Amino acid sequence: MDYLTTIGLEIHVELLTNSKMFCGCPADFGGDPNTKTCPVCLGHPGSLPVMNRKAVESTIRLGLSLNCDISPRSIFHRKNYFYPDMPKNYQISQYDIPLCVGGCLDVEMEGYARKVGITRVHLEEDTGKSLHVGESGRIHGADFSLENFNRAGVPLAEIVTEPDIKSPEEARAFAQLLRSTIRYIGISDGKMEEGSLRVDANISISAGEELGTKVEIKNMNSFKALQRALAYEEERQRKVLNEGGTIVQETRHWDDAAGITHPLRSKEEAFDYRYFPEPDLLPVEPEPAWIDELRESLPELPVARAGRLKSEYGLPVEMVSAIIAEKALADFYEEALKSGGDPREIAKWIAGDLAALLNEQSVDISGSPVTPAYIGELVGLITKKTISGKMAKDLLKETFSSGKSPAKIVKEKGLLQIADEDELMSMVEKVIAENPEAVEDFKNGKEQSLKFMMGQVMKMSRGKANPQITSDLIKQKLS
Amino acid sequence: MSISIEDVEHVAKLAKLVLTDEEKEKFRRQLSDVLDHAKRISEMDTGETEPTSHAVPIVNVFREDERRATLSNEEAVSNAPWAVDGEFKVPRII
Amino acid sequence: MAITEMEVKEIAEKINNKELSSLEVAEAFLKRIDTVDAGINAYITVAHSQARKAAGEIDDRIASGESVGEYAGVPVGVKDVLCTEGLRTTCGSRILSGFSPVYDATVVKKIREAGLVILGKANMDEFAMGSSTENSYFGPTRNPWDPERVPGGSSGGSAALVAAGEAPWALGSDTGGSIRQPAAMCGIVGMKPTYGLVSRYGLVAFASSLDQVGPMTRNVHDCAVLLDMIAGHDPLDSTSIPGARPCYADSLNPNVRGLKVGVVRELTSTGIEPGVLREFNKAVELLAASGLECEEVSLSSFEYGLSAYYLIAPAEASSNLARFDGVRYGFRAEGEMEDIWEMYDRTRSEGFGDEVKRRIMLGTYALSAGYYDEYYAKALKVRTLIVEDFNRAWGKFDVLVSPTSPTTAFKIGEKVDDPLTMYLSDICTIPVNLAGIPAISIPCGLSGGLPVGFQIMAPPLQEEKLLSVACGLESLLGFDEKPPALI
After folding, report:
1. What is the pTM of this model?
2. pLDDT attached to residue A413
3. Which of C415, C21, C39, B53 is CA-nearest to residue A277?
4. Are residues B93 and A84, on separate chains, in Cβ contact within 8 Å?
5. What does pLDDT average to over chain A?
6. C 85-104 residues with CB below 8 A of A?
7. For the purposes of burial, counting CB atoms within 10 Å of the CB of C250, is it exposed (0-12), middle (13-18) or buried (19 or more)?
8. Residue numbers in B near A17 (CB within 8 A)
9. Among this protein's residues, is C158 annotated catalytic?
């Protein structure tokens, strides 16, 4: 039977602020346990929260980036439940009147676009961390737990999507686009591995119009894991239904090593969060002027930039996605375009060889020894046939390691490509004379032998022979 | 008689309290008295009245994103019933 | 005259002109405490050495010619609901019986900066839940006017210690009448300021949207002085009101002729003890006779104040008290624990007393799925109607008046098993907290040898007017009775 997949995501983003959401403790990652705490984030009796302006602004900017409406009046609620990593045994969060509501994000897929509705974006505080200690080191079978509240109270924005996503691939593309958006506006570093970006998913499959029973999937620590987990769950649910079973509404845990989801066992707890307005915090009523100011502070966002790169330079979707993923990379690209080089060729070099080098050396684009101008220069050298593509690859590596401009290296090493037909012809003639077998093969229609002879010319010229001209000359000579 | 023993058990569970049978009955009776009295508010016509959750007419109270002094680790765990190497130790979480 | 019987003003003057040292004053009060408190139990913790040290420091500063505050060296009692760094803060609960705060509440910081010497921490109903100070893990406080009777509550310790001369003044907290009702029952002055005038930072929360710290004193002038010390914007409390405020002590003006006084019908008709009503009416007549316009006013929503309060306050409390779980501070149940859930259950069940458990359960119920709209949401709307009734009254009256408590001090044990009857003790004081307005209770007479309190209410931030009316009435009444048992 054919099933339709429906996915909604809930994404938590740790906001990049100096201080925590409700107190002045440092909000950065790490540190010795319980060294970034104060009476407020330890939930000491009598302590009170005061909102961090930047956290509110970051959430509003995120909402604006996702085309949300900003609520004219928004309040905080308390979400009540007991858990030892939660200092007050309630979480200050938002409930029925979040800061941002009703947005959308267009995700460009291969051949179509998916509009994903954003139900809401709200602001809340993070919890501390429990370390389960025992023989197995896991939550089950642990002997005791250790609580560290350094993270408690770090501001978190939660984004909830409509169930508009139709496949695991779309979910991944959405999450990646969202991550790009978050990083463009600078509100979070969006690191899934460190937990500053956490994606939970709800997935159901259905044969008809009516939605199926949804299952929540947690613990996906990379985009790849998100896609794999959802694909696994899609298949698991399909099997259950095909075998006449029913889907149980539950929370399942993704085990990345095993490549499966399994039900998250928890002690039977009555979930009744008893939300009520947080009396210690007053409402947020953003004035239009403030919202305008925040809107103006936004850079061109990934979706807009992708559209522009596509229409202005005719880049294919895949290449655009690679270029716009990081703002710094897209900025780098547009800077490189100033050289006047071919936009596609420049994109290809940046998203291809340069990205690979950066990745290999774990260098951020902002710290790239190859400047945008160098890429422009490199492409210019290729276009002018000063160097071959093969030479360009080596040249880029050398530019990367030395930080010298490509033109300078070419000059210093005499790397100019040989395009002089007479010079090349003498080499071609020499190769033909020395390789009668290859010549015979070529005449018998063996394509391989042309490549062999090209290689010999290249060897002779130490890679500087222009491949196109050389090839033409060989053919001409042997025809 | 506005609430049952089951109601008492339910709220006690949510509030992390354990009660003896005797206590359950006592609290059931006492809470019923109070809730019966409290229910009088349902007589009141509140129509379109907006709820008041805060007694001060102030909005947008923020602090700037600045750091303040933290407690030392020693101070942070100084009142802990059970602390190990600067962390709060608790029985296992299942 | 004994130091412990002197007015605050006199003590302050004598310290300032070096007739008395701060240490002598502290010693006199500590001796008084050591003598009488065994029979009253107004203090949970007496800070003998810390008080002596603080007093000595004031004396040193004075000796070195440093200018200290006008009231530096004057002792004070502090309700045990306010965090004092390094001085045990219990909230009258077993669960905090060994808790030593790592910081000072803002108001504590302020009184320390003004040079007041903290003698100790005053007894109270556990987590300020109660109207009799019988719900304390550290035993009930007795009323200095009659040791068989309660001092009122929840700030019963603060009220009793002022009445018994165990400190010249004290700080209390008021969520539904917890300053004013014990002040009335102990024959002293007690004031709940406008919500947001005094910082709540470091005040262990009972019901956050209602709680306010306030002065408990022997007279209205001292009340204004102590309010001056503790009032003002605090960036650590989001609900703290920004902006300048007047000096209340300087702006006291007992000449309040021509002011319009509304006598609230709903708080003076049913359920008020005849003796209380008699003394109250005499005071109203006195006001009328001295040129104030007194007129009855009906504020019908007040009928529902108690019901709304006993949903809103427990709801907030159920959440505020969730943090007491034996993880980061406070009492933790002993013995082997299967898991964290058992630790929570046992710690909280052994750590909290019955009244606290009752209110936690009541609040949990009012907030739980299925009952929220019927109870909690409805109560918040009733709260709005009470605010609106007050606002209508302010269109016509400068202040409103009523008895503070429907009865005089009742017998210890009389109401402990009947929570609803106990809650009715707060019927006159609750509307003030729901609306966030200021109110004061001053003693207006005796009924059956026990003090009766007169409550005056004013619009938000009109403490000047409130204190002036109270000051005017105080001089008209000339109440100077002292607890007979202690003279």
Report:
1. 0.91
2. 76
3. B53
4. yes
5. 92
6. 89, 91, 96, 99, 101-103
7. exposed
8. 65
9. no
